[in-house]
Design brief:
Two copies of one chain form a homodimer. Chain A is α/β, with parallel strands linked by helices and 248 residues long. Chain A is 46% helix and 18% strand. The complex binds adenosine-5'-triphosphate (ATP) (2 copies) and magnesium ion (MG) (2 copies). Residues 14-15, 38, 42 of chain A line the site of one magnesium ion.
Chain lengths: 248, 248
């Protein structure tokens, strides 16, 4: 199962969601590979790894084998395809053919879940992920600009489904950075649940400084602060992902 | 003076800073034009405007005149070049020559400040702004990933200065979404001030739900909640910008 974590709006919790979903699924004995397709390399550094050399970019360009790039994160129980400089070369060289999406999809072999983190845009790197993916998880900050961008994102997913990848579906929308004390968050939640109904996960990730702290320790929050509300929320989210993917 | 608000890290407060700097400078009797160079069009919608038709993209492509695109925001006291669909055509058609940056720079005629909001990436649109700009304001969320991206951003600015625009300088770094109760924020602030010294503005924008609410009313926070700490912070920031630009 290839899950793409995407939203062109910046700073909505894509990387935080990709990292914590990977860690939580691994704790539930799924075999998981996390691929960092963002040149910023936040998923890579947020797990305490250094930029790959070679990296996911050189694998997608066909210049390196998967085994040369892949890192085994022993104590977290899942593997990582790290970001690095070659992602920028992939961006510059992207021919738009199906080679890169095919290579990305091939990484799923031997895993239950391949989770792909993407940059804040709908540029070539995100399109490679959407062309290769089975389903998309959309983290959504419960705020005005993020809500506004949702319609454009859904149109992009429709376009990719029509033109390149007929099996691509929206697995669900995850509300993140949710501060229940604010009217704004409750309004945005009500609006999103009205429009998207069941496609909005029940789990809601609260705003929590633990999530902002965890990357500086190179750990997912489910390891950094295992009893915290943020950790509970990401475990609840992972259980819902399993239900939607495996029960189907 | 052409000020580019840039940071490839997503969700750090670029749009919020561009909109509130424009509004605050206008209240201090400066003539201000805000240009929304982000296809997401958050600065445009956050000011209650609809996507331009024609928009800033068609102006930069040379297909429309500035007067056909420009909107006068009477009650806010400044003008806007709205984002729209043509920004995506500009992205697709970007020839990399100097035409688009020259047209962007020409918009500054007749204004004291041209403020340019950019998308979360260092793609063609941000590079057009950096090639045209006099100085860059870098909003920085006081968190780990944002701090990590700063070195890459400074390298990009150096590269643009060497290759395309020798007068481009870093006007300063503005700490945003600052929650003084957290150790993380204070640690990041100490780190940034140690490395960048005077180039970090004294003004610090606190995390405030007023800033997240304001765009849904189509208003900058300095109009939406004029007595709030967030509004105070953006006015203090605007005064520092004036000192750095006009006293020099
Ligand atoms: N629920 C949360 N509560 C508080 N802080 C959070 C939460 N989720 C993420 N963060 C922090 O907010 C910032 C933005 O999150 P993150 O980097 O995961 O978003 P992103 O969508 O991946 O950003 P980009 O668009 O740049 O890729 C980070 O500093 C992260 O640590
Ligand atoms: N100081 C603040 N306190 C609380 N919320 C804020 C603050 N500044 C901005 N926001 C809110 O945080 C979100 C991100 O801010 P904004 O959209 O301005 O960032 P950006 O850098 O322009 O994002 P992008 O990378 O997508 O362009 C928005 O919903 C905004 O309303
Ligand atoms: Mg990210
Ligand atoms: Mg923005």
């Amino acid at each position: 199962m290839i899950l793409v974590v995407a939203n062109q709006k910046g700073g909505v919790g894509k990387t935080t969601t990709a990292v914590n979903l990977a860690a939580s699924l691994a704790e539930k004995d799924r075999r998981v590979l996390l691929a960092d397709l963002d040149p910023q390399g936040n998923a890579t550094s947020g797990l305490g790894a250094v930029p790959g050399d070679p990296d996911l970019g050189s694998y997608l360009l066909g210049e390196s084998g998967a085994d040369e790039v892949r890192l085994g994160l022993e104590d977290l129980g899942f593997d990582l395809m790290p970001a690095g400089e070659d992602l920028l070369s992939l961006l510059a060289a992207y021919p738009g053919d199906g080679a890169a999406p095919r290579r990305l999809a091939a990484l799923a072999q031997g895993y239950d879940y391949l989770i792909v983190d993407t940059p804040p845009s709908v540029g070539p790197l995100s399109l490679i992920a959407l062309a290769a993916g089975d389903a998309v998880v959309v983290p959504l900050q419960a705020e005005y600009y993020a809500l506004e961008g949702l319609a454009a994102l859904v149109r992009t997913l429709d376009r990719v489904r029509r033109r390149q990848n007929p099996r691509l579906r929206l697995l669900g929308i995850l509300l993140t950075m949710y501060d229940r004390r604010t009217v704004l968050a409750r309004q945005v939640e009500a609006e999103v649940r009205k429009h998207f109904g069941e496609r909005v996960f029940q789990a809601v990730v609260p705003r929590s400084v633990r999530l902002a702290e965890a990357p500086s320790f190179g750990l997912p929050v489910v390891h950094y602060a295992p009893g915290s509300p943020a950790s509970w929320a990401y475990h609840a989210f992972a259980r819902e992902v399993i239900q939607r993917v495996e029960a189907a």
